[in-house]
Amino acid sequence: MTARSRLTPEREAELYEAVLDLLREVGYDALTMDAVAARTRSSKATLYRQWRSKPELVATALRHNKPVNMHDIDTGTLRGDFRAMLARTDDCQLEKDSALMRGLAQAIHQNPDLHKALRELLIAPEITGLDAMLRRAVERGEVRADNRALDFVPHMLVGAFIARQLIEDRNPDQAFVSDYLDAVVLPALGA
Q1: What is the pLDDT of residues 108-130, one digit of tens each?
Q2: Least crowded by CB within 10 Å, which of 50, 56, 152, 153?
Q3: Alpha carbon separation from 183 to 135, 136, 168 (Å, rounded)
């Protein structure tokens, strides 16, 4: 990524919010740098100076929007860590995040550059934070090191977001995620 010295943090946040709003409104394929420039009253050249491509801009906007940084969470128990993670968001944000995930699901399969940018800028750091959280639970003796479910926790968490909308036509909310953690994730880990 090129230097961003010309943008203030406030302006950068404004640009990211515009990208996410457009993503929710029109989807990834219809989102253009021209539309972002028009929405934010900036030039396309400015956008390309800051972000090399649309996939990089979208992935960076999603990372900036992420309310939870799992690296900062260490309550002393795995259940406490999951509760702290959930407490850092609200139902409105969960609904927005769910809508973004659904909107990006198809685009990821058709746009390898988007998939790569999301993996590098958003997914890999999140998995690293989750792995650290789970590793601490193993070190504390809450989860057995040979528990096969450890490999599937990211899949379980993402699956909960996608499945709720698909099966129940409802967005995930804090109550659902809390129940899901207690009924599915923690039991699978033996915690």
Answers
A1: 888 888 888 888 877 888 888 89
A2: 152
A3: 21, 21, 17
Residue (of 21, 120, 132) closest to 71 by Cα position: 132
Please identify which residue in the block is written with the tokens 């809390």. 178
148-155: long-range contacts (C-beta < 8 A, 24 or more apart)? 149/188, 149/189, 149/190, 150/189, 152/188, 153/185, 153/189, 154/126, 154/127, 154/130
Long-range contacts of 150-153 (CB under 8 A, 24+ apart): 150/189, 152/188, 153/185, 153/189
Type of residue found at 163: A
Query: Is the separation of the CB atoms in 77 and 184 below 8 Å?
Result: no
- Which residues, 6+ apart, have CB-to-CB distance to 22 below 8 Å? 31, 35, 36, 39
The residue whose two tokens read 């990834």 is 28
Is residue 5 predicted with pLDDT exceeding 60? no
What gap in Å lies between CA 66 and CA 116, rounded to an integer? 18
What is d(CA 13, CA 7) in angstroms, rounded to the nearest whole number? 10
| Phi, psi (degrees; rounded to nearest 5) at 106 | -70, -40
